[in-house]
Each structure stands twice: as C-alpha cells, then as structure tokens.
Amino acid sequence: MKLYCLSGHPTLPCNVLKFKSTTIMLDCGLDMTSTLSFLPLPLVQSPRLSNLPGWSLKDGNAFLDKELKECSGHVFVDSVPEFCLPETELIDLSTVDVILISNYHCMMALPYITEHTGFTGTVYATEPTVQIGRLLMEELVNFIERVPKAQSASLWKNKDVQRLLPAPLKDAVEVSTWRRCYTMQEVNSALSKIQLVGYSQKIELFGAVQVTPLSSGYALGSSNWIIQSHYEKVSYVSGSSLLTTHPQPSRHCHEMLSNPEPGESQEKPRDESQPWRNKARHPHRNRGQKQTDPRSKGPAGTSHMTYQLTELFQTHERSLNEPMDQASLKNSDVLILTGLTQIPTANPDGMVGEFCSNLALTVRNGGNVLVPCYPSGVIYDLLECLYQYIDSAGLSSVPFYFISPVANSSLEFSQIFAEWLCHNKQSKVYLPEPPFPHAELIQTNKLKHYPSIHGDFSNDFRQPCVVFTGHPSLRFGDVVHFMELWGKSSLNTVIFTEPDFSYLEALAPYQPLAMKCIYCPIDTRLNFIQVSKLLKEVQPLHVVCPEQYTQPPPAQSHRMDLMIDCQPPAMSYRRAEVLALPFKRRYEKIEIMPELADSLVPMEIKPGISLATVSAVLHTKDNKHVLQPPPRPTQPTSGKKRKRVSDDVPDCKVLKPLLSGSIPVEQFVQTLEKHGFNDIKVEDTAKGHIVLLQEAETLIQIEEDSTHIICDNDEMLRVRLRDLVLKFLQKF
Amino acid sequence: MLVVRFLPPSRAPSSTLPQPRAAQERGGTGGGASSAEGTKREPHLAMDRECAQLLPALCTLLADPGQPLVDDTCLEKLLDWFRTVTETEPSLLVLKENPCLTELLLHTLKLQDTSARVLSFSLRLAGIFAAQEDCFQYLQQGQLLLGLFGVAGAQGRPAWTIPGVRSGWVQGMCSLAQHPSALQLLDDCGAVDTIFSLQGDPSLFVASAAGQLLVHVLVLAVQGTAAGQPLDWPPCARRIVSHLENALCSPAAPQVTRALNVLTSLFGRCPGPWAQVLWAQLRAPVARLLEREPVPAAHSLVDLLLGVARSPVFRSSDHALLAQALSQLGPTHAGPLALGILKLHSSPQALRTQALGVLLQPLAYVLKAAVQPPGAPGLLDAVAGSPGVVDALLGSKSSCAGLLCQSLAHLEELQPPAGVAWVGTDLPGAGAPSPSAPAEPTDALTWPQAPLLRAVVTMLRFCNGSAAPASSAGGRLCGTLAGCARVQRAALGFLGALSQGAGPQELVTQVFAILLEYLESPESSPTVLRKTFQSALQWLLHCPDAPSSCALGPQTQLFLTELLPGLRKRLCSPCWEVRDSALEFLTQLTRHWGGQAGFRQALLASEVPELAEQLLQDPESYVRASAVAAVGQLSIRGLHASPEAQQERLPAELLRILSADSEGFPRRAAVRVLTEWLRDGHAGLAEDAERLVARVLGAAGRDLDWEVRAQAVELALVFLAQTLGPPGARRPSAEAAPGPPRPPPGPEALRPLCRAQVFEFVFRALFDCDRPVARKSCDLLLVLGARLGPGSPGEPVGGGPSPASVEAALQGWRAGGQGQPLGALGPEAVVAVLRALDLDGLQATLAESSDHVEKSPQSLLQDMLATGGVLGDNQADCY
C-alpha cells in the first residue's frame, strides 16, 4: 500500500492511495497562496497600481521591470495570478481510478486533474460539495476573466532569474508548474465527471474495495472517507469539525463529547455584589429554544473551545451540518489525517466576539467594514452571528452588502440543502421557515446582495456599511476595489476571517494603508486537543499526516501541545513524497458456492472449532474469489477425442484422510503393552517423546506435529504400530 | 438573598392578623392595634396547660400503628420542643405530670410492630428525658431504658435494618449519656460493641453519628477520674482506646479513617490530662501510618494532625511528626497540612519553612519551567520539585489545574494584609525552634512577594501560550496549561490579592502588561475576563506609584489609558457577560478616579461613555442594569459626552426604564441611581426634585418587584431628610443630640413632601405584602414621627380628617386599596394618620419572623393531631 503525496499544503491536500488493485486520489486541493506573489487585479482602473515602479536588479539591469513591480519594499509579479498545482509528475494521473472529494475547498484543482492528465475515472462527492464547489470555481473564473490582462509574465520564472529575486519570490516553489486559472468550460467538464453520493453510501470499486463517505461536520456536505476491503480499513479524515453546535451528535459522539474537564464547566454563579442582583442570575442562557437541548453541551475538555463557543455559536445557531461521524472511523489500520485547523491557538468563539466588537466599533465611528471572504462557509456563520448581534449593538440601520458573482446562488443554495443540515435546521424547513436567518436579513433589507459593484450596487450603496466580498487573497474580485477605496481612511476597518492567507502578505500590495486591520481567523476544523481525543477514541493502528502536524508551528516552537502526539508516532509526508504504508495484506475473503458448502461435513475437533476438507476450484474475477465445486471426474472415454485444454481440470485424487489430535504417551504405552510389547522404554526429548521397543529394535518418535515409526524392514510391524497410533487420532 | 415573604394581604399585620388557633381558644384578644400585644404574642415554648391537654391524644395517636403517620418534620419539631422543655423545667416533673409520655415509651417497648419512625422517635425521646439523672433513674425503674436500648429492644426488632431507627438509637444514646449512671446502662446493653459496629454502618449519617457517640462515651467515661497511666483507663474507655488503636493498625483504609475522625473530635473535647495520655498512647500508631505507602486516609490524618497541633497535648517533639507528614503525604494532602501549620504561628521556623516550601513547590516548578538557569532568583531555588508535585503537574490537565489552584488558594489565604509583617520569630506566641532543626536565617519566612508575582505572571503566560518553556517538561506543562480557564481564574484572583504588597517596579510593569494582554485577548473567556477586571482594579487601587488612593501615578495613568481601548471593545462584545463585567468595571473605575483629571481626559476621549449609554437599550436585562449603574456613576462625575443634553435626558431615561422596563434588575438599578443622585445632589435633579420624586414613587409604588419598592422607600427617606433638614435623631430610640432640643417642625414643613406624594406611597408601603418594604416604610414613619414631636393618639388635628375617616383609610390601605380614601394627603391628614397608627407595635410585628405563628408548640401539636384525624371529623376518605 502506497501513498503518493502530491500537495504539501496540509489543508489543501491531494494524495493518491494505491490500495489493493485500485488507485484512489484523495482530494485535489488547489494552493492559491501563490497568487499572493502577484499584483491585485483592480476592477476599476487604479492609478496607484498602474503607476507602481518596475523592479530592477541591484546592478540596474531593468529587463524584468515589465514583469515585476515594487510596492512599499515588496516585489510583485504584474501578470494574471497563477496557482500552484498538485504534483503531476510523481504518478501517472491517467491511472487514477477514482477521486474522492471531502469538501468544496478541497476540489478546486479538479479541472487541472480531470482535463489535462488523461484521467478517465470517476469523481465522488456529495451534492452540496459539488454545488458549492461549482460556485467557488465559478466565482474564481469570473473574478479573473472579467479583468483581462494582456501580459503574461514568464521571464521571472527562469530558475537563474528567480535566484536573483528578493524574497518571497526567490523562495517560491515549483514556479514552473504554476498555471493560470481554468475556464468555465473546463469547470463544467470536470464537474460532469462527478458522481453524487450520500453519507454512508457504500460504493464498490472493482470489487476490490468499498469506499464510504461519512459526515465530517465541517461544512455543508463535507465528508471523511472510509476505504476498506474485507480485512483492511483506511480512514481518510479531512476537514472535520467537532463543534458541538452541530447539535445532532450520534449517541456515541455525545459520549465522547460530554465529559467536560473537571472544574471547567461548572461556573460558579457570579457574585452578587450588586443589590439589584439579589435574585439568582440567569444561567448562561441560550437564546431561542436551544437551552433545553441536551446536545448543546460544549466540546469536552477543549479549553480552547469550551462552552463559550457553544454559547456564541449556539446563539447564532452556527450548526450548519450534520455532526461528525466518529464511530465509523474505529478499527482503522491506517488513518490519514489532514485538514486540521490552521489557527490552532484561536478559539472560533473568541474570534467571532472580536469580529462583532470591531465591526460595531468601526461602524459606530462612521467607518466602513470590509470582510474579505469566500462566497460560502464562514460567511453563513458570520451573517447568523450578526443577525443576533446587530439589534443589541444598535446597528440595525447599518446596511450589510454581500457582493459576489454567485452571492444569490450561495444564499439560496444554503437554504435548500435541508437534508445536509443539522437536526435543528432541518426541522425549520418543515415549519416552514428558512433554516438560516439570512433569509430574514434579506427580507428586511438589512442584507443586500449583488453580483458585482457595477450596476444596482452603486445606486444602493450607503455608508457606513459592512461589505462581505471576495477574494480573501485580496488579489482579485470586488474586494480589490474596496481596498483601494477605503484603504486611505483610518475610520475604516478590514476584518480578515478566512484563515487561508497570511493577512500581512495579503495586505502587502496595498501599503501604505491607513485603514485598520483586524485578524480574526475563524477555523472550526479540529484542533490538536480534539485530534488527540479523536485518536484515543478511534485507535487507529497507524496515523499518517502532513509533516507540519508532527512539530509545533514555527512561530510557536515551544507549544508542544500544538502537534499530533500519538503512539506509534504519526508517519509524516511532504510534497512529492511516496510513503510505503507499514501495513501488509494478510487475508483475502473467498466465497464458497452453496452447493460446495452443502457437501462439506465439518467435524468438531475442539469445542467451537470444526474442520472440513475442501476440494474445489478457485475462480478469481473482478477481484472476487469464489470456490466452486470441482468438476466430476470424467469417465475415461474410450474414444480418441483429444482432450481439450479447457477441460484440463486439476487431478483430483482421492486424498488420504487428515489426522488430528494428540497421542497421550502413557495410554499409548499401555496400549502397546496390551498388544504384547513388553520391553518399552520412553525417553523425553525436546520436542516430544521417543518410545523404544527394544526387542523389535523399533523407535516411535512422537512429536507435536508428526509421528515416525522407524523399524527395519518389518512392514507388518510398522502397519500394526501405525494402526495403534491411529487409534488415538481423529480422522476426517 | 431569600425573599422573606411577609403575610399575604389577607393576613396583613396588625389588627387583621389571625391569631394562632390556640390563642383563639384561650380567648386571646382578636388583636386590635395595641402595641402591648406584640411582645405577649411571642410563642412561649414551655409545657403549658393547653399542650398538656393535647399530649395524651398525640401519644395515643403515635402509639397506634393503624393511624396515619405524621411526617418526620413534625416529629423533629416535637423533639426540639421537648428538648427545650427539659432545659427549662425538671424532666422528672414533666414526665410525672404527663404520664402519657412514659406510657408511649412502654407501649413502644411492648409492641413489636411499632413503626420505624415512632420507634426512632421514642428512642430519642427517652434519651432526651434520661439526660437528667433523676429522670434516668425513674425510667430505669421499670428497666424501660434497658428494654429500649438493649439487645432485646430496638436492636432486636426487624426495624433495626432501617437507618432511621439506628440513627434514633445513636442519638438517644448520645442524649442520655450525660451522667455516670448512664455508663452502667451502656455496659448493660452492650452499647459499646453496637457503636463499634455502627461505625461501619452503610448509612453515612449513622456511621458519622456513631463516631461522635464514641467520642461522647469516652469523654463521659473519663470524666471525674484522675488521669494516670494508660493502664488506668476506666474499663469502658480502655475498650474504646484499644479499639481505636487496633483500627489505626488495620490495613483497611475505612477503619483507619474512622479511627482518625474519632480521634480528631476527641482532641477537641477530651479533658486535658487524659488527652495527654491518649496522645502518648496513640502517637506511635499514627506515626506508623505515615510510613505506609500510600499513606492511608490522608485527608483525615491531616485533620487529626492539625487538630492535635492546635490542642494542648501537642509537644515540641511532635513537630518532627508534622515534618514527616509534610514530606510523606502527596501534594494534594500536604497542601492543607502546610496551610494549617503556617496558620498556627507557634511552630518552629524550620517546620514553617518546610510547610511554605510545600505550598510554593508547584509555583516554583512553573517558574523553573519557564526560566533558563540561571534566571532571576525564583521560589525555592535550592529545592528540586518533589516527584509527587511533578507527577501531578505533568500527569493530566485536571491534576495539574487542581494542584495549582489549590496552592494558589492556600497562598491567598496566607497573603499578609498590606503593611503587616507576615511571619517571623518575633510574633507573639511563636514557639522556639525545635532543637533538632538547623538554625534558619531570620528572613527565611519573609513573604516571597516578588518571586510569587513572577510565578503568577509566568503561570498566566503559560495559560495564554506566551511563555516560552525552558525544558521539555516545561513544554508539556505549557501544553497542559494553555487555555486552562480554571487556572487562569485562580491565578488572576491571586494576582489581585498580591496587589496589596509592593513589588519591584519591573514586575509591576509585567503585571500590568499581562493584565492588558488578558483584557485585549479574544481568547479570554467571560469569567476569566471578569477576574481580570477585578484584578486590574485591585492593582490600580494599590499601585505603589499612586501618590494617594484617589490620585494616579504615571504608571497607573498609562495603564488606565491603555486599557480603555480594550474596555471599549468589550462593551461591544456579543457576549452579554462580557458587556456586563465591562460595565461593572467602568462603574468602579469612575467611582474611584472620576475626579482625576488624567483619567477624565482619557475616558472622555475614549468613546466609552457613549457606549455605556447605548447599553441602556441592551437586550439583556443584567447588562441594562449595569449600564444604568455605570451611566449613573458617570453622570455624577459629570463624565458624559454632551453634558447639556445629558442633564435633562438622563433622568427622563431612568424614569422610562423604571416605569417601562420588563425586567426587575434595571428598574432596581434605576431607583438606586436616582436615590444616589438625590443624596449626592446631582445637578440634573436640583431643579425639580419634588416632581421627580413624585414620579419615581408613583412608578415604584405600582412595581411588582418588592426590591424596587423597598429601594423607593429609601429614596423617600433621603428626600425626607433633605426636606426636613439634618435630623436630630434618626431613630426614636436614639439619644437626642446634645444641646438645646431643636423645636419640632410644624406640619407645614411636610408640605414639600406632600407635593412629592411621598405619603401616598409610604402609607401604602406600610401595609405592603412584602415585609422588608413594610419595615422600611415603618422605620421612615418612625423617623418622621420623632421629628414631628409627640402628640397623643386619637387627638384630632386641626383641619385634619375625622378619626373615622382616618380609620377607614387605614383599612383601605391594609386591604391593598389603590384609591385615595383621604383625598390628596395634606400635612394635617398626614399628621392625623401618623397619630392614628401604632408604629411601634407595627414595627414589633414586622420584626417577627414570618413563621412565628406556626412556631408555637400548641400549633404543632394541633397540626399533628389534625393529620391523624383526631381533632376534626375529617376522617372522610380522600378518594
């Protein structure tokens, strides 16, 4: 079993698993951090960007000044942004049988794989994953295609030239493989190869293995995968979340989650220092009906994500999806673990609080708030939080704008995937009530959405306001315009909530910037404490993970808690590495045809264990092995018909019966004596006994698995002795 | 606080008060408002005629197994009453006058199928009466006690399996074991063996009571005998002591625990000489417990050692035992022992040093984990962490948090008050160092303020992930502590306590820095944040660079300025607890430094006052309440963004909250703030205080929340004091001020109060169904009455209403009527009502607890009889 690691990005994985006779690609994430090396694509002509000086080498050589521009000490490629693809040379991608997608963020490289590598297989994903993935791709293509750029820089990619460039361009990896964005046509073609699956649906691959998606609790339709044969099980965990705001844990999950850290959960009621508090304070209240829901407990023991988180996220009904299915991951031989939280030290609850507070402060002071975001995912959470918060913060009159080519579809899609939502939200559909409150925000005109800043938006635009728009890299999309527009005023604030890009690098081409920047990355994927609990519960034999997870983050090298700690230590992989998984196939399952099974006569040799001999023909087809009854021995024909090759069946001789049991030496000796052997001597050997018949000069050597009768040319004696031995053994 | 409900309106105080049934039967007066009745009505607990008449019926009821049983509470009350009776009257007399009691006991003795409850009751009753020796003898004449308590008595009944019966036996035994004659009974009925076995009773109550009984019996046995050698123990005591000795040597931990618990109680009660003998005899087995691995019953052992150390039997040679315990016990048990030793003030320096070391060890370990050697001088530089401590700290998150929180709590208890030398040999009562202990430097036990500060700051840094560990063990500690809110809260609490002592400037800077980090961090949970606010406030109050408590030094000024942006952000938090804590903090800050120029400037520039005012509209009622308090405080200090508009708007806003807010908390806060404003002469109220008071009282009078009404009476009192000028005497009982008596103000002085409609509110509040409101109102009227001077009741006031109409008005108010039976209350009417009221009597009535009527023994007996259907004819079935 081998694992080919095509991506080095821990949350945008792309691995190929060779297991039995199948080749399975696990996710195909697209690393977009490469776009940070490029200049932003302004939607409206930006004099500032177009007047940036070209970059020249130290010796004054300016041959790159058309390709590279300098901004506040940083150098950017002035070209259409390009993306870093998964490795395409490590393994022949045309041999990939299937691609399993775990969530919509992990499928963005799909068109590159399916359209340009000779791939002929099938892609499996859940319906929300495909639909929202399509939206993300559509938005990406739209953002890039609507700002055509004549120039395409390539000189700087030359290895000799790249060496001379300043960091971080100098250190960019695999620049020669960076590719421009795919087209909508490629997207459609790639998506047409996807086959939709539902949670727990079992999909047979060539009879060899079975793959099953499980709910991973992270995003709408997100899944982990189980790949199993009859005797081996590989679990692929990618982008999972245990936030118990997903209020429908299976009983099993609930058990795992509901043991809070001693002392952590029982908050003493706050002291009643103020006289009007003579009566007991409310306990932590969950607004709405949720307080009676016993499932609304905090994720246990994770002090990073304790009850506060539950409080907040419950408040805002953060629970989008079905909860993570952990029980099905048990008894894995190998567990491939990717897509953990990118911000292990930030508790999503604290970040949401920070987001709301800063948003309110900015708007109150007359400033605007810009939230660079993807068109799906965290934005639903934020809108939901704000839905609760805006009234209490006196922000009801402040308009919220959501600008994305796919804004409308995204908001509508989220409302129709009822069966993929948590129980709470599912039930709303039957009320009937939209599961997400953004519908109400839209109805009351508090939230407005537009495909782009052009058109209606410019008529409705009112400040101060809050704008949600993409792309979080700040390199393309409508966000570029707002950065240019609002960047000069310190009243405005940009709040980063997506954890995928370093906010400092994202802001680099906009420097100098007067606007306030707040970094509140919200990443609800598993943190290390949760992983360690998960591993304890699931107990896989081996864990495989990206190398980043086997050491503390570079910026916090002392935080030994921010790494995977398991026994045996996790095997790590890096980009372009091939791992031989330490795990051997030992058994195959073979079916026995009913008529053959009928003919068997098992014999009980020990209580509970029966044996039977089988004579059969082993048929193997489509990775399925079947024992069929042997053909009847053909009567020897007298004719001269030539035997046909296909009739050449194995020679089925009548076999000697098999023997089982052991020979009790004392009783054997007694038996011998009864039969007239008198001068018997027994010697103990390392392996058994030797019974010596001195007169007959005969040895009977009794060992655990064999008995030898050694006598010189006295066949009669040997047969007599043999029969005596056989009396003690069972035959079948 | 419990809301003590007074009587419901239908049973309002004074004349409408229904009398206890017994009193009515006695022909007690129907009430009237006469004051003298107030004291007479106090239920007396003696055995009076009425009770004596009721007792036989009750005894019959109890003795009859066919009767429905009264509940346990009644039986308990009955026993309490008998206990009181035997304390005030000779038991024998009571018993002789009420033969039904003896009959009940005899009956219980005879009848085998007495119910468990009655059996238990009888045992305890017998014990109560047999406590007096003559009565004991009287009961013993018929071997009654032996029959009840002996093997053939309760112990032989099937009901013995019920814990209540065993408990009754133990309690009865405990009551009667008061005199030497009882010892004989104990012996006769084999009580000591029974007690030994009951010590291991499955019911914890019985087991614990048996332990106490054992102590009691031992003390009784040695009483009056001269202490001598161990062999001289009186026989009963000898058995008990040898039982304890055996138990201490037992391999079973529960037995050891029981023995230790008994010993702990004993050393508090046993007469001195015998205690000495006992300790001399049992010291060795106790010491041997410390040699076992693990030490059994460590918790009880610590209790015993501390109990002994506090008692006179303790000798200086025992210090070695304490030292041994400190080193042998695990960190969780050594901690409480160390705390106890340090609180003793009489232990030698070496032991105290060792004890302090135990408490400091976990902190020293934390400090060491973060500091590369050689670092700044830490705690316990010489001591390596004991393996137990290290195991607990690195073992698991819960053990680590538990140990650290325990150490912090212990140290916080020892934290010396500011300016007081902590510990040292010069303290009075300090014992001489034990001869075996090496001489310690004199400063060995100075409070390690600076290293403690450093350790707590380090701990907080570990918790927020900003401390860099210096070793791999430190790395593990870092992982364990990261984000641990429990440790954060404990450390912040201790940090606040440490503010009372000074620290080096550089450390104070670090303290402010970490507090700011916590205030700023989005990771701080609401409870941690609240602790941070409290700690910050304490450091601000005690900051060494502050020239005085109300002025700010440069460092605190800087800190205050830096924390305001954080506070501003917290006021916008989506989490209501955070907004609430932030507002409370703001209120405190303003209270202390509102007059300080630097703070005022920073605050006004920070947008915080505006935010606080916006929170008056918060959806969460607690936050609104805190916002009311904060805005009230800001307003008193003149700290609002646009002072002109605020002066008019705020009172109106508070009135709106008072009359319209759906929750009680903001309304209470509003009245409170308005009271404070009135008292402190807030500019916004100066102009038209009368009208405002009228509106507040009007709104509060209709409020359903009694605390709002009570607070409103307070406001009325402030207004009254301001209107009538400084009082000569606030309470009628208070001594008059020296000097010529001030002439009482005439009724005309009441005019402003009448205009503000104070009396409409106060008279009605006098009959409020919630007693605290009525009491406050009564106090107010007493103050007023005292100011107005004496006037004879019933004397008509010129121009006032007729006595009949006053009486009618009072009736109306008592009934909770909302109308104005006397029309607009003018000064004359007020005086007339005041004179018609018996305020002193009313005050006495209101001072009584709300259950005083039901407390009388007659009432209890009647209730019990009624349950049994003896009194009434309500034997009809209940179907």
Summarize the structure.
Chain A is α/β, with parallel strands linked by helices and 732 residues long. In chain B, helix 21 (387-395) crosses helix 22 and helix 23 packs parallel to helix 26. Helices cover 64% and strands 0% of the residues of chain B.
What value does the average pLDDT of chain B take?
80
Instruction: Give the distance, in angstroms, between the N- and C-terminal Cα atoms of chain B.
Output: 41 Å
User: What's the count of strands of chain A?
Assistant: 33
Helix percent of chain A reads 10-25%
Q: Which consecutive residue ranges of chain B, at least 5 long each, have pLDDT under 50?
A: 1-43, 423-444, 729-737, 872-879
Q: Estimate the helix proportion of chain B, in percent.
A: 55-70%
Largest sheet of chain A: 7 strands, mixed
Largest interface: A-B, 54 and 62 residues
User: Strands of the biggest beta sheet of chain A: in what spatial order?
Assistant: 8-7-6-3-2-1-22
Number of helices of chain A: 19
Radius of gyration of chain A: 35 Å
Biggest beta-sheet profile of chain B:
none
Report the count of strand segments of chain B. 0
Strand content of chain B: under 5%
Radius of gyration of chain B: 35 Å
Oligomer kind = heterodimer
Number of helical segments with 4 or more residues of chain B = 44
Poorly predicted ranges of chain A (pLDDT <50, ≥5 residues)?
244-319
How large is the share of residues in beta strands of chain A?
A: 15-25%
Query: How would the global form of chain A be characterised?
Result: elongated
Global geometry of chain B = flat
